[in-house]
């Protein structure tokens, strides 16, 4: 405990570094997954290859990917950018499938109705399909966010600063407090970000609350089944 | 790209693979760790998950556990246990099981729960006991999801087993960290490629098994 109190500034610094590595990756994964998922749904022939391909990316272990990337894109192993890109790839691997499924769950009836009342393709996507897919997309982003935050720490063995540095330092110098502080901070950070995502979801999709209360399962189940 | 060529060059030399510290031995160690950790995880989490799915009790706790496990940083867990157990295989095994068990658990209860309730009721109506319902109806029909859980767990274990070398155990992480310490990027990259290949092979093995099982009558593609 004394170790933690004496090292509060360093813990704060590493927490910020941790966020600077993980949050951009979550955003990149989310933003890139939408057009990919949309494309995969549109061109049916591509759907399975894209989904399996990105799924296969997830099978690639994190540490080896951190090391492989520099050879492919010319970053260096100790470069924070390298970590951000690797994490974005993992996020993408998880996100593309859930985004494709979320967008696909919007029923054909809704789509044709939107077209019938005069929505253009793009307008329909942003004002009808995307909001309807919102809840499922949010669920996907939450998974990506929590797993990115916990994955970042691995990069500490390569010398990139994050809360993971508390593990490597603590292990090298035999300080249990350092490791425990790192674990607690990572979990707290993941929980806070998750909570913020849920709150953001409530703010962006206010209809969710009322619909859940007044119009229970049948409609939602049908949406999911479709 | 020259880096990749160098790494491949190293991978195609005999001395990289031979000997007690060579890639063959390390790969086998890595697979051994994976099987052991997967076995322990399955032994703990499969019965629990099946029980949760069968009785519909404790689901909330299971969801909480899987969520919490996702947030737990692997490296932290590993180094923390290693400080108590010392250098060797205990710390990686504890960390690997804690990380992989929730995936197995989630697959098992989701698998059993995915079975159509009408089918379960029909089995009961025919006079099957709870145990018979579980072993003859719920497990065979829930197998796709149960296997998905095991597959995910295996992947997590292979990835994390690389870190075992960080706390003094073996596995392919040995070469990787050796390369890291000696600034030998070719060795580091070569070892990484072998880990990636191993992960993809194991994933593919699960994929093919799942596909083959789907053809067996009575085991459903219901999932």
From TrEMBL, chain A:
InterPro entries for this protein: ABC_transp_perm/SBD (IPR051204), MetI-like (IPR000515), MetI-like_sf (IPR035906)
PANTHER family noted in UniProt: GLYCINE BETAINE/L-PROLINE TRANSPORT SYSTEM PERMEASE PROTEIN PROW (PTHR30177), OSMOPROTECTANT IMPORT PERMEASE PROTEIN OSMW (PTHR30177:SF4)
Transmembrane region(s): 16-38, 50-73, 79-96, 143-163, 175-205
Annotated Pfam families: BPD_transp_1 (PF00528)
Domain of life: Bacteria
Membrane topology: Multi-pass membrane protein
Compartment list: Cell membrane; Membrane
GO biological process, one term: transmembrane transport
PROSITE patterns membership: ABC_TM1
Keywords on record: Membrane, Transmembrane, Transmembrane helix, Transport
GO cellular component: plasma membrane
SUPFAM superfamilies: MetI-like (SSF161098)
Annotated protein name in UniProt: Osmoprotectant transport system permease protein
Domain ABC transmembrane type-1 positions: 15-197
Main location: membrane
Family: Belongs to the binding-protein-dependent transport system permease family.
Isomerase keyword on record: no
UniProtKB/TrEMBL annotation, chain B:
Domain (ABC transmembrane type-1) ranges: 31-206
Recorded topology in the membrane: Multi-pass membrane protein
Transmembrane segments: 31-50, 62-87, 152-173, 185-206
GO terms under biological process: glycine betaine transport; transmembrane transport
Tagged with keyword Chloroplast: no
UniProt keywords, alphabetically: Membrane, Transmembrane, Transmembrane helix, Transport
PANTHER family linked: GLYCINE BETAINE/L-PROLINE TRANSPORT SYSTEM PERMEASE PROTEIN PROW, POSSIBLE OSMOPROTECTANT (GLYCINE BETAINE_CARNITINE_CHOLINE_L-PROLINE) TRANSPORT INTEGRAL MEMBRANE PROTEIN ABC TRANSPORTER PROZ
Protein name: Osmoprotectant transport system permease protein
Organism of derivation: Nesterenkonia sandarakina
């Amino acid at each position: 405990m004394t170790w933690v109190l004496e090292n509060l500034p360093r813990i704060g610094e590493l927490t910020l570094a941790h966020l600077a590595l993980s949050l951009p990756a979550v955003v990149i994964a989310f933003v890139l997954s939408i057009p990919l998922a949309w494309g995969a749904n549109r061109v049916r022939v591509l759907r399975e290859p894209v989904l399996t391909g990105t799924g296969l990316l997830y099978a690639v272990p994190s540490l080896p990917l951190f090391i492989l990337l520099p050879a492919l894109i010319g970053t260096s192993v100790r470069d924070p950018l390298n970590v951000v890109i690797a994490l974005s790839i993992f996020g993408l691997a998880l996100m593309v499938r859930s985004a494709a499924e979320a967008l696909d769950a919007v029923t054909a009836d809704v789509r044709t109705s939107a077209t019938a009342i005069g929505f253009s393709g793009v307008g329909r996507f942003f004002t009808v399909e995307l909001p309807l897919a919102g809840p499922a997309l949010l669920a996907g982003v939450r998974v990506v966010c929590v797993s990115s935050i916990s994955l970042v720490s691995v990069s500490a063995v390569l010398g990139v600063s994050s809360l993971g540095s508390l593990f490597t330092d603590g292990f090298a110098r035999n300080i249990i407090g350092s490791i425990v502080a790192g674990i607690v901070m990572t979990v707290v950070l993941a929980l806070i970000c998750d909570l913020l995502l849920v709150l953001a979801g409530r703010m962006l999709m206010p209809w969710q609350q009322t619909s859940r209360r007044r119009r229970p399962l049948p409609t939602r189940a049908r949406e999911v089944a479709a | 790209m020259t880096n990749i060529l160098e790494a491949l060059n190293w991978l195609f030399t005999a001395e990289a693979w031979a000997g007690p510290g060579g890639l063959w031995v390390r790969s086998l160690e890595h697979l051994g760790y994976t099987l052991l950790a997967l076995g322990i995880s399955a032994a703990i989490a499969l019965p629990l998950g099946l029980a949760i799915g069968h009785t519909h009790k404790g689901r909330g706790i299971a969801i909480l556990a899987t969520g919490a496990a996702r947030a737990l940083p692997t490296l932290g867990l590993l180094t923390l246990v290693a400080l108590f157990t010392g250098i060797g295989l205990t710390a990686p095994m504890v960390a690997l099981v804690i990380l992989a068990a929730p995936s197995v658990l989630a697959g098992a209860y989701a698998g059993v729960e995915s079975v159509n309730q009408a089918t379960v009721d029909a089995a009961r109506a025919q006079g099957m006991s709870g145990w018979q319902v579980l072993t003859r109806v719920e497990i065979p029909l829930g197998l796709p999801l149960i296997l998905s859980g095991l597959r995910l767990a295996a992947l997590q274990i292979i990835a994390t087993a690389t870190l075992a070398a960080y706390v003094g155990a073996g596995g392919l992480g040995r070469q990787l960290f050796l390369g890291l310490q000696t600034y030998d990027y070719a060795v580091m990259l070569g070892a990484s490629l072998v880990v990636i290949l191993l992960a993809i092979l194991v994933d593919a093995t699960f994929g093919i098994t799942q596909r083959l099982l789907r053809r067996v009558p009575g085991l459903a593609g219901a999932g």
